[in-house]
């Protein structure tokens, strides 16, 4: 029995080693992709001294291997000013705001959240703001039209309600008038009867 178990163990180890050798041989082959299919955007994953990023709503600068909160406005090598609230102002006075994950190097190169360099952050922001303004304008216009129609509908319903109430009030007033007239007639008739009775 012991010899049988030993033989099975040796056979198992032999098969396992053989499989591992086959796997190693097949994983040594390398497939090379053509270079023209690689992305052209420059992507950085390591930070450099003086990089500025917004993290969790706070502006921080990379100093001595650590992220330190920004206490004062910073002026970059290209003359761009980064305010401690995250506003970035170029030499022409154009302003953009850094969003969480966006980064600017000390030389003024912008990177998006994915780490890809942004060629012209000012124009990209202007396009984004223009698109947002257009969308907001369209939404406001649609809201105005809907409100205008709602007011018209409410006015029509109110007018109908007032007309019905006026008609009902008029009918009731006529009924009250008739009742008063009948009551006055009865009082007049009674007064005549009393007068007749007094004369007798």
Total strand segments: 10
Number of DSSP helical runs: 2
Total domain units: 2
Judging from the principal axes of the Cα atoms, what is the shape?
rod-shaped
Q: Could you describe the largest sheet, including whether it forms a barrel?
A: 6 strands, antiparallel
Radius of gyration: 45 Å
Task: Summarize the helices and strands and which ones pair or pack.
Blueprint: H1 2-27, E1 52-55, E2 58-63, E3 66-69, E4 74-75, E5 81-82, E6 87-89, E7 95-97, E8 103-104, E9 110-111, E10 117-118, H2 121-199
Antiparallel strand pairs: 1-2, 1-8, 2-3, 4-5, 5-6, 6-7, 8-9, 9-10
Search tags:
single chain, 200 residues, alpha+beta, six-stranded antiparallel β-sheet, 2 helices, 15% strand, rod-shaped
Structural overview:
The radius of gyration is 45 Å and the shape is rod-shaped. The chain has helices at about 1-25, 120-200; strands spanning about 50-55, 60-65, 65-70, 75, 80, 85-90, 95, 105, 110, 115-120. With about 200 residues, the protein is an alpha+beta fold. The strands form two sheets. A six-stranded antiparallel beta sheet has the order 3-2-1-8-9-10, with no helix packed on it. Strands 4-5-6-7 form a four-stranded antiparallel beta sheet, covered by helices on one side. It folds into two domains: about 50-120, no CATH class; about 120-195. The model is unreliable at about 20-45 (pLDDT under 50). The protein has two helices and ten strands, in the order αββββββββββα. The longest helix has about 80 residues, at about 120-200. About 50% of the residues lie in helices and about 15% in strands.
